[in-house]
Amino acid sequence: MAKRSSSSIPVTLLTGFLGSGKTTLLNQLVRQPEMSRTLVVINEFGEIGLDHQLFSATDETQVMAMDSGCVCCTIRGDLAQTLRNATWRFAREGKRQFDRVIIETTGLADPAPIMHTLMTDERIATRYRLDGIVSIVDASHGQSTLNHHTEAVKQSAVADLLLITKSDLASPEEVSGLQARLSSINPGARQQRIINGEINARNLMGLGLLDADGLRSNPQRWLATHTATPPAFGAMQFSTAFNQQTSSFPGFAQGHTGSDRNRHDDHIRAHCFTLSTPIQRERFEAWLELMLSLMGDNMLRLKGILNIAGHNRPSVIHGVQHVFHPPMELDAWPDDDHRSRLVFITRDIPRESLESVMVAIT
Ligand SMILES: Nc1nc2c(ncn2[C@@H]2O[C@H](COP(=O)(O)OP(=O)(O)OP(=O)(O)O)[C@@H](O)[C@H]2O)c(=O)[nH]1
Hints:
- It is built from ten helices and 19 strands.
- It is α/β, with parallel strands linked by helices.
- Guanosine-5'-triphosphate binds next to α1.
């Protein structure tokens, strides 16, 4: 089991639909001293217009299948090359000039190939780590974008931080309606409203398992909202967020509202499990491998902190589709709560499919 590496370079992925305000945000960010050692990687077809020394362009169209030939697994060949070369290209007298990377994608981009690139290329995975996914949603067009573009729903579903832009152009009701919808798509992501890209750069850092300085792990915050909802229930708790419909396992129905069945986000759910009995590692690995291969690209994201039987320290896992980082062992449990917590963000996977096998791993 790998130990976490706090020396690897954190990478923030900045997504958001066309015209949502990504460039406006980046222009604000690069003026802040916290960003002076951040390499900004932008798609070369985009408008560049960025006054920043550490800047590189990539070509998002160069998406290629991974060696496995799996249809849902693609990587970004150009990005892999950019990240591999960056450590010497942006170096002076043998010293790397950046300690952090932000990758901005075009509005239509699927975040999965970028996450696959960071996780599967050995030379990249050992040097860089995904710090977090930030998705921008335009308050004035957010609802209609989510209605019409499945990419936008996916970008929101996998985010760690959702930035709501242009709230000055929308009514308070429109903004709160959008925020409620985003909470149902991705209940674990923090939401923040910003106007004209104004935000402290530190708010975009440390969104993953490690804090902004890369020193301390913070699994509670990483998994926080997902696992906070259900009450304790013996060895296992379960909750599913589905367009404001939440239920817990078993007998913890918490009310729901109706929804328009044609919306893309009707297919996306966050499933959360809490297990108080230690997990049997071999059973868990076998189960995970089988389940992930069956789910393919319908597994949007997986995060978890695990209490593995026979281990005093917790392990964390995270993945996208069926590609995931091998479990990393943390130095210690962050508090007295030693239960395993797993969060799956899925598309079109009935909760029963996950629920029925969860008991088998303890
Ligand atoms: N009123 C208002 N306008 C904003 C805000 N944020 C961005 N804009 C404007 O929205 C337009 C699009 O912003 P960009 O930053 O170019 O958006 P983008 O996501 O980079 O766009 P693409 O690269 O085309 O996908 C620009 O005219 C911005 O000035 C905001 O909070 N309020």
